[in-house]
Amino acid sequence: MMKSKHVAAFVIAISYSTAMNAQDPVIMEINDKKILKSEFEAVYKKNNGKEVNNTTKSVKEYVDLFSLFKSKVFEAESMGLDTLTSFKTELAGYRRQLAAPYLTDRNTNENLVTEAYERMKTEVRSSHILIRVDEGALPKDTLEAWTRANIIRNAVLGKLPSASDISNYEKLLKNSTEVAKLLKGKDSSIYRTKLASVKNLPLYLKDAKDRLQDIAAKTSDDPSALDNKGDLNFWTALELAYPYETAMYNTKVGEVAPLVRTKFGYHVLKVYDKRPYLGEVTVAHIMARFPKDATEKDKENSKTKIFELKEKLKTMTFEEVARQFSDDKQSSDRGGLLQPFKKTGRLPKSFEDAAFDLKANNQVSEPVMTPVGWHLIKRVDIKTLASFDEVKNELKNRVTRESRSQMGRNALIAKVKKENNYKENLKNRDEILREFDSTYLKAAWTASRVSKLGNKEIINIGGKSYTQMDFAKYLESQMVFRGPSDMGDLLRTLYKTWSEEMVISYEDGLLDQKYPDFKNLLREYRDGILLFDLTDQKVWSKAVKDTAGLKDFYEKNKNNYLWGERAEVSTYKCLNDKMAAEVRKMLKAGKKDKEIVEALNKTSQLNVNLENVTYLKGENKNIDANWKQGVVATNIKDEKENKVLVIVVNKILPKSPKNLNECRGMATADYQNYLEAEWLKYLRDKYKVKVHEDVLSTVK
Q: Which label site among 115, 127, 403, 529 has the fewest CB atoms less than 10 Å from its CB?
């Protein structure tokens, strides 16, 4: 007798199955394959729009289309097309694309898109001092960089480092990886440079008017600081590293932000100005360039030239003047047109100011001087910030490609962990350190070394276990030649990446169950690929490759490919009426076309030109008007070529079949249609459809 708890489980299972069948009943059967209402309804609604006409007639009409489609899919499966590596690879690629939006926290991403748009309304001018450190740097190197950056930031705020601060920093500096290695090799240049950037701050700031910009060239690891004093000019959202952008927008004008960490290192950041977004302007310019090492006389000559060119605009277009006279040869061929630009200080200030001061398209500025010459500037267009709805999709794509998208991923990981009782045993993870040595840095380590540890569980999520060997195999897959590293730090860094990937992988495995839209769309892609491959085999490629079948089809149907009534015509294109008269005279004498051309072209090859063409009726109005064999009675004037035409209709050809080469494209298309019709007949005979009308009537 079945034990009571087993009976209870059996009853629960039957009840659950019955409930599920009631929620999603079978709507039709194709041979032994059951089709659920949800699948039919999803495809029906998608192909008929959101507001469908769900009359009995329209739904029933769709049954035939859908059942034929599924019959093709089942036929592809019966042929094993779904087991091919090429099919699996293609479907996996599509699945990754479809899954991507589901493997991030949508609310976080929506907030990031909105945040980016709101920030784009404002442009911010900032300066920075960069203390470079790699994202994956060892803790001691990160600490050295942070300490140096913090000391410099404090100095910018007015607090100079104490002797104790400098001594503490010097110890960290000597212990850092790069400096320690160089000092062993008796190279102290980098050590002295970094130490000086901290030790000499009182000297650097002695007469400083701007505490950040005046020390940037001596303290920043950004080489451009030598020229720009750390001034980045104006930027807006989605143009700089996200942490820097966030600090820039969150800091008031005139204030210094807390230290900012980006992939480049630490930034001491000060905001100097904020303004509404000015847009992106497109201009054309005419340039009177200063010669190299220009004298004042040279500059005066350039000024005179630009004013002369301004006068020419009264009688010539801007583009004409630019092409003919502009000294900017890179743009003159385009009528002076330049690439669109924003007012960010990357072009000379006077040029940018003049371009953005123009109030209307096609307005031309007064002559403008820059360090390289004089310019006339015409506004072509200006692109201001579009509405949110217009740019929302573009912003989504940009946010997805940026580092800020990691925030959505991190939010999802936290959510999945919480929902699925995520547990980790870091003690079991750290046991791997016993077998994790410097051979890993030389890409010579193997996961098998971990097998002796007992393959204990490290992570459990939703009841799914990930073990020491799972992690070890991941470690082996990530091996590359690496420099000296702390093995514990390296293991923990790789573990963080692996554990996050396992959480994402777990969620990825649930997408079909959690999101009906995803499941339906993936099934559409799967069935679509199979249908394409099957149709290609049975129809498209077969019609092209089956030359014997195509020839046989043509022979049986060649009367479908007829030439219409045609005329074989010789047209003598004569230089003038005199030559035309000579042609007619020689034709009357029975001369052949070659004889006529050679005789009349002895004095000039331009006298007569002969064309022999076969025309279908309706192709040439002159031939249509003289549709009978013989020499056309009157000459015809060709106004386009300025020639006199003598036309001879040599022969009128009746309707006749084209040969296969002459109609191969049409015959191949018809052969494909024939093959498809035969194939569909085969499918309808093979796959019998039984529709459950009671379920069909409930489709909405």
A: 403
From edge to edge, which strands make up the β-sheet containing 26-30? 33-36, 26-30, 689-691
Structural domain containing residue 441: 421-492
DSSP state of 642: T
User: 506 with 420: CB under 8 angstroms?
Assistant: yes
Identify which of 700, 689, 697 has the alpha carbon closest to the alpha carbon of residue 35. Answer: 689
> Quick check: is 538 in a domain?
no
Q: Output the domain CATH number for residue 236.
A: 3.10.50.40
Q: How many CA atoms lie within 13 A of 589 on its CB side?
A: 11
Domain boundary among 458, 492, 526: 492
Domain of residue 596, CATH code: 3.10.50
Residue 394: inside a domain = no
Helix, strand, coil tally for the chain in percent (to 5): 55, 15, 30
Total of domains in the chain: 4
Same-domain status, 214 and 242: yes
- Same domain? 347 vs 435: no
Measure the CA dihedral 140/169/175/225, to 10°: 80
User: How far apart, in whole angstroms, are the C-alpha atoms of residue 101 and residue 110?
Assistant: 11
149 φ, ψ (degrees, to nearest 5): -60, -40
Count of residues in the chain: 700
Q: Are 232 and 268 in contact (CB under 8 A)?
A: no
Residues 569/610, Cβ–Cβ less than 8 Å: no
- Which residue, 243, 276, 309, sits at the end of a domain? 276
| Residue whose token pair is 């005419």 | 286
User: What is the DSSP secondary structure assignment for residue 230, as one 8-state letter?
Assistant: T
Beta-ladder partners of 283: 379
Q: Two tokens at 287?
A: 């340039």
**CA pair distance 412, 421, nearest whole angstrom:** 14
Q: How far is residue 2's CA from residue 10's CA, in Å, rounded to a whole number?
A: 10
Max Cα-Cα span within the chain:
119
Query: Same structural domain for residues 174 and 315?
Result: no
- Model's pTM, two decimal places? 0.65
Residue 689: inside a domain: no
How far apart are alpha carbons 137 and 131 in whole angstroms? 13
**Rounded to the nearest 5°, which phi and psi values hold at 556?**
-75, -20
